[in-house]
Amino acid sequence: MARTRRYDVAASGRWWDEDDRRWLPAGEVHAWEPGRNETVCGLSLRRSGLARFAAVAWTDVLPESGGAADAVRRICPRCAAAAGRRGADARPAWRRVNPRP
């Protein structure tokens, strides 16, 4: 069975949310896998000056989620293609049920 990947957020900026009392991503956001030193699209976190947000899931920064997307200005298109722009209510990805021999 395939392992489900969990993507967190790396962003070019941050802002303080008074309601949640925590830092949230702002500016340009990228998908990031915990334990790696680069984003899904291949940018180095340190050299690009991106801040990690391990407590914010990738699906929370998508504009249609309404979660932590208040100050997000741009979503990296390469990260969105790799990590998906799918919410929790989206259909599962297409897959072949009965492949030919």
Give the number of DSSP strands: 4
Oligomer: single chain
Q: Count of helical segments?
A: 2
In spatial order, strands of the major sheet run: 3-1-2-4
Q: How many angstroms separate the termini? A: 20 Å
Written as H for each helix and E for each strand, in order along the chain, the element string is: EEHEEH
**Helix-strand makeup class:** mainly beta
Overall radius of gyration:
15 Å
Task: Flag low-confidence runs.
Answer: none
How much β-strand is present in the residues? 25-35%
In short, what is this structure?
The protein is mainly β. The chain has helices at 45-48, 77-83, and strands at 8-17, 22-32, 51-57, 72-75. It is built from two helices and four strands.
Describe the structure.
This protein has 101 residues and is mainly β. A 4-stranded mixed sheet has the order 3-1-2-4. Strand 1 and strand 2 form a beta hairpin. 26% of the residues are buried. The mean pLDDT is 84.
Write the layout of secondary structure elements.
Layout: E1 8-17, E2 22-32, H1 45-48, E3 51-57, E4 72-75, H2 77-83
Parallel strand pairs: 2-4
Antiparallel strand pairs: 1-2, 1-3
